[in-house]
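Dear U.,

For the methods section draft, I wanted the exact inputs and outputs in one place so we can describe them consistently. I've listed the two proteins in the order they'll appear in the manuscript figures. Please don't edit the token lines directly; just add comments below if something needs changing.

First protein:
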Amino acid sequence: MKLLLLSDRESPYLWDYYTPGRLSGYDLMLSCGDLDARYLSFLVTMGRAPLLYVHGNHDAGYASLPPEGCECIEGRLVTVNGLRILGLGGSLRYNNGPHQYTERQMRWRLLRAEWAVRRAGGVDIVLAHAPPRGYGDLDDPAHRGFEAFFPFLDKYRPRYLIHGHVHMNYGHNIPRTVMRGGTAIVNAWERYELEL
């Protein structure tokens, strides 16, 4: 199964310079947020794969103009071709903007998701906007990750936690993938292919 991961920056390769067939090899597209709704609608229209998304901290416009043809999985566990995916968008609260959460609020969101995860027999992918604290995040308040992810990751051990929020062009030492136990934490900034 081939996945296209997206976040934070519209890829010129997939939008400005798109050529027919460029999206035909993907089985599923996953957006970690902070992308133009028209871009996501374009991708799901031109590709043959479904597109699932969560909110980034700059996605207030989705309330009035959501990405057409795409599925928001915010706070839900969905199964696609046997792959169990939990959606938990948003960033750590650093001002009073939308889709921002305190550590306590994110812990509560994770606790509410546990029933569905247990019922499904686990989770394969956590689709988030922000990373876990210390795993691909930054030290400034706006780009700090969540410590609340750790108990959930330790208990359910998903294969992947896919996030955005931290742009790869913020610095030369930002990793694309880091491991924590058996979970690969992948930064989906702009576009990234993942083959399962």
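Second protein (the one for the lower panel):
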Amino acid sequence: MIKIISKLGPGLLFAGAAIGVSHLVQSTRAGAEFGWGLIWALILVNIFKYPFFQYGPRYAIATGESLLDGYYKIGKVFLITYFILNLATMFTIQTAVTIVTAGLASSLFGITDNMVIWSLIITITCYIILLLGKYQILDKMIKIIILILAITTIFSTGVASINSDEIYSFKQIFPSGSGLVFLVAFMGWMPAPLDISIWHSIWTLEKKKSQKITAKESIFDFNVGYLATVILGICFVSLGALVMYNSGISFSNSGSIFAGQLIELYTSNLGDSFYIIISICAFTTMLSTTITCLDASPRTMSRATQLLTKNNDKNYYFHWISALAIGTMLIFYFLLSEMGALVELATVLSFITAPFYAILNYKLIMSDNMPKSHKPSKNLRILSIIGIFFLSFFALGYILTRFI
């Protein structure tokens, strides 16, 4: 068992990055507004996104390269496109996840309710941890965080189900109007934007530097992390349905205010004795996302910079993580009032680029760059093609419901 756990790493980092806003905020909202009516959407989108996320570690183990290297080989324009898209969203996404983490930290630890101060503390702490410990400490930390997260979330869901007097209804629904817009957003961020597959490929290579892992072990590691995101996603929907559905509470669009409302509503229904458990559950959810995002974007941008400048000898990780940390803190100071518009921009780009990454990953995994023995099975290829059509339809649906 210890040997198996030691082999885990990139898959849990994937889970740590994925289980954030999509679970704590979106899944809880889904349960609060629609009960268990959107479980079908959660399961369906996880099935159709599965192959494209899995192609990250599959390609890395088979070739010893990241997906970015593959993009560069099949067309430099694809790598440039990724570079521009990531540059346009990385600062906003980092700020968004950090401000929610700050709100939860304030509720859990007190000290001050100033979100800017908490955001700076969290950003600087994560920055120092990553620079001093690099991948090794992140690998160890995330195992502890995910374990705490899983235990507290499943325990809270169990308690909520026992304490609930409501008659459960698992009738599935397809919302209309503003509910349709939420559905598209919910599916777009569940379990995460598809470009996280690139992060996973790079984490896999980092793990491979310190420990020998086979293709089978790498896929198993990914499956463990992916299954965790699905199970915890269902748990958060269930918590929203059990604790918040028909409560009459109107949630704030502010991440920090929402965090306080979330904990207050949970404790008012589960009891004050569960305050610490709920707070730790929510805080570890967002902390895992914050630290993995702060690590992943600089890694991908560093590798992209190396490829575009044809300079493999220089590591740009320090430059990019410093730029991301400083840029995030500057947004806290000068653009916090514009966070809504910035997050919307990042969200739209994530939604409409999902088919782009799906097609690109599939094209790469089926190319001559990929050893034949490591190419996906027929069933996985069929699922990939269906998934591409599904995600394209979903992206088009978002555009039509949002802008027309």
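Candidate sentences for the figure legend, describing the second protein: Residues 115-163 form the longest helix (49 residues). The CA atoms of residues 43 and 230 lie 7 Å apart.

Thanks,
Y.
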